[in-house]
Amino acid sequence: MNVSGLVWAGTLVALTAILLVDLLIIGRRPHEPSVRESSIWVGIYVGLALLFGAGLWLAAGPSVAGQFYTGWLTEYSLSVDNLFVFVIIMARFAVPRRFQQKVLLVGILLALVMRGGFIAAGAALISQFSWVFYLFGAFLIYTAVNLVRQGEPDEDEFTENVLIRWSRRALPLSKEFDGARLTTHQNGKRLFTPMLVVMIAIGTTDLIFALDSIPAIFGITQEPYLVFTANVFALMGLRQLYFLLGGLLDRLIYLSYGLAVVLGFIGVKLVLEALADNNLPFINGGEHVSWAPHIPIWLSLVVILGTLAVATVASLAKSARDRRRELAQARR
Q1: What are phi and psi of 156, to 5 degrees?
Q2: Domain range spanning residue 105?
């Protein structure tokens, strides 16, 4: 796929304009979005991603569009998993609901910057060293195993990292929020508000999730343009999705297992591709492994869609059964 500099520039300008609209909305009126407002914005962002994929289909063919859709769906599901941790961070630091969307937007912008850097580094590594796929595949399989072991993150299990603990000790912090400001004045002194610590927590969380998401998307497509746009569209609307899902996040109890299957599948796919392209002397004498199958993009899309659908339906069914059981016990 040959993407000209003009197409790159046009894409970046268009995506930046969309993000600026989001910034202007928050800057004008910080508030907690209603279900209706959140639904409209999520629908707009999903519609834009679908239209972008349709444009790729017309311009470059179904294979390229399929790679984008598969990558976008994978990144979107991983981004939804981010929301679990965001919920825990907001609760841990008691961030007022009307200021949470600003925190989310900053977190999304940080994620875009971090993922952009990882995408550039990953693309450079892959172009020079095909054996990087072995590392990416092994990392995704390792992450999948950890997801199965740990399940969804719980507030009681959340531990503050070194940077958060350092900021609490070293920075002059106020005890109360001052709106959405990072600094405040108290008794003639300038202090940082707890909002700064929240931003640090969100930023470090973004960094950890970027380490998972970038190998996953490179397991689907190695085109930097598709990798970048799939990530951007996956992060767009995440703020509104946070408020739209609300309590539903607590009911998606099997999402982590679904994501584990997806990451494990992509990890195996990466290892098979590395074997088919092998040039490491200590593996098969440095020769390509002829029996390593190529997994087509349509099969990847079916596996990812099917896995996420099963995980979502199973989660909602289990939550419904549990609620009925609780109601029955309460009546006794």
Answers
A1: -70, -25
A2: 5-331
Q: Give the rounded distance of the alpha carbon of 268 from its chain centre.
A: 20
pLDDT-derived band at 23, boundaries 50, 70, 90: low
Do 224 and 290 meet the contact criterion of CB atoms below 8 Å apart? no
171-175 CB contacts, 8 Å cutoff, 24+ apart: 171/196, 171/197, 173/197
Q: Are 234 and 42 in contact (CB under 8 A)?
A: no
Neighbour tally for 187: CB within 10 Å: 5
Residue-wise pLDDT for 288-307, tens only, equals 777 778 888 888 889 988 99
For the stretch 121-164, pLDDT in tens is 888 887 777 778 888 888 889 888 888 887 665 555 556 667 77
Number of domains within the chain: 1
CA 238 from centroid of its chain's CA atoms: 9
The structure's pTM equals 0.81
The answer to whether 138 touches 267, Cβ cutoff 8 Å, is yes
Which tokens go with 323? 């609620």
C-alpha dist (Å) from residue 95 to 53, 86, 90, 170, 249: 37, 11, 5, 21, 18
Q: Which candidate, 77, 76, 97, places its Cα nearest to that of 87? A: 97
Displacement of CA 223 from its chain's centroid (Å): 19
- Residue-wise over 4-32: b if at least 16 C-beta within 10 A, else e? eeeeeeebeeebeeebeebeebbeeeeee
75 alpha carbon, distance to own chain's centre: 5
